[in-house]
Amino acid sequence: MAKILKTVWICTIVLLLWSFSAKAQQRYRTREGSIEVIGSYRDSIIIAYSNRLFVLINYETAVMELTFHPAILRTKTDSLNVKLINSNMGQVVLKGQLNIPYVETLQHPDHKLNFEAELHLNGKAKRIYINGLLIHIASNETISCLLTLNFKLRLSDFGIDLPEGWNNEITIQIFQTVLKKSN
Q: What whole-number distance in Å separates Cα of residue 139 and Cα of residue 148?
């Protein structure tokens, strides 16, 4: 009887560990995503960019989460870079489900993306509408797709007041490679 209980106990532990492992394998995290924040000051276009965007994608459910801190953004203007570095805005988080049932990492046609996501910025959360593409990349051993996302937002919706001359509306563009699923 003790031997049967021990066998059942070991099988239960193995099954639990396997299920946790299977769930963990569905999510892929990268940190080389690119982000561009495009705004304008008077008649000039200002672009703040970074290649240090963190992206977590669940391939099975097509749920994604993007995070970055505004202090990582850089422009071509030193005085703006200092303001970004000294920003106390906190982490920016974008969470949403792509309008596809799952993320296909094998050959597939391009997917047009149109979905809503929740953006957490400056201590406020708002639903925003996002457009994008999931483009298959052929002949690559590790990269499967390129995910591009685009959306606009009004900074005043997040309690951010800009000095005179700055446009309240900005455009966000995100570029993220999607790795092939490992078996």
A: 19
